[in-house]
Design goal:
With 276 residues, this protein is of the alpha/beta class. 39% of the residues lie in helices and 14% in strands. Bound molecules: adenosine monophosphate (AMP) and manganese (II) ion (3 copies).
């Protein structure tokens, strides 16, 4: 059985390794099929593709799209997309558009809460000018001593209701799925266990995702407990969705799951790669 890891990040968004280095590490760790899924960009895929052919593994062209559903932000992973598809390229550009202004507003909120210089601070960690994210603010805040780890920094500064959080309208769910399908790809609802919704809200989200044409649910993720693997496997089966798996790796020392560190998908679920 080939080993799949269908969710990870590079310096083209908020990861710490360049695409070629991510691929090399994945190959070294026994991953056979790797999807690079940088937030709202596809610019790292050419380098990753070259590195994958050098290492003898399969690269899946991917991205992780930021989406607004009701009043929450969710993520939709795109797999096997054509990175040159104009509809997708324009859609991703429209999602990225507001990030610069959002970062300025985040810094303003942080300044009012007693954290000066957060914009310049975060920019020191940015590796793609087109993609400032909360992760870059988090790294700055931790290194500057405002929090001791990622969990603390998000809880104190960067989540809804906290001083560095700025509400933002990303793509709609039908838009995101539509762009992914236009580019020939499959749409995967990323780490659903992370979204703060009631059980009823979760069923609504999963059903709307399916009705918008969504293809799969990310079942195995470091954001999920083993009990949630089973819970989302059941949702997938009931809704007729496939299942996916991804380490969501951003870099060494960030998160506890390394590339390829994934158990088998529950046998009751059809894998997203079934007809690849
Ligand atoms: P953004 O797209 O700018 O809203 O940033 C989202 C990114 O922040 C995610 O992809 C994660 O990498 C990171 N992130 C969000 N929430 C957390 C959290 N609670 N702990 C650690 N990282 C987080
Ligand atoms: Mn991220
Ligand atoms: Mn995500
Ligand atoms: Mn991710």
């Amino acid at each position: 059985m080939p080993r799949y890891d269908l969710h990870c990040h590079s310096t083209h968004s908020d990861g710490l390794f360049a695409p070629a280095a991510v691929v090399a590490r994945a190959a070294q760790r026994g991953v056979d099929v790797l999807a690079l899924t940088d937030h709202d960009v596809v610019s790292g895929l050419a380098e990753a593709q070259q590195a994958a052919s050098d290492a003898g593994i399969t690269l899946v062209c991917g991205s992780e799209l930021s989406v607004t559903w009701k009043d929450i932000t969710i993520h939709v992973v795109a797999l096997r997309i054509d990175p040159d598809n104009a509809t997708l390229v324009q859609g991703l550009a429209s999602i990225r558009g507001g990030r610069g202004e959002r970062a300025r507003l985040m810094a303003q909120g942080l300044a009012e809460a007693g954290v000066p210089g957060a914009y310049q601070g975060a920019m020191r960690y940015v590796t793609n000018d087109d993609l400032v994210s909360r992760t870059h603010f988090a790294r700055f805040l931790i290194d500057a001593g405002y929090a001791k780890d990622a969990r603390g920094v998000f809880d104190r500064y960067l989540t809804p209701g906290k001083p560095g959080y700025v509400a933002h309208a990303w793509a709609s769910l039908p838009q995101a799925v539509g762009w992914i399908h236009a580019a020939g790809g499959q749409a995967v609802l990323a780490h659903p266990g992370r979204y703060r919704v009631t059980p009823t809200g979760m069923r609504k989200l999963l059903t709307e995702f399916r009705d918008a044409g969504g293809d799969a649910i990310e079942i195995l993720s470091p954001s999920h407990t083993p009990a949630q693997y089973q819970e989302f496997a059941t949702h997938a089966r009931v809704l007729g969705l496939r299942g996916s798996c991804g380490s969501d790796w951003h870099g060494p020392g960030e998160g506890w799951m390394d590339l390829g560190d994934l158990p088998d998908l529950p046998a009751s679920v059809e894998p997203v790669w079934k007809h690849w």
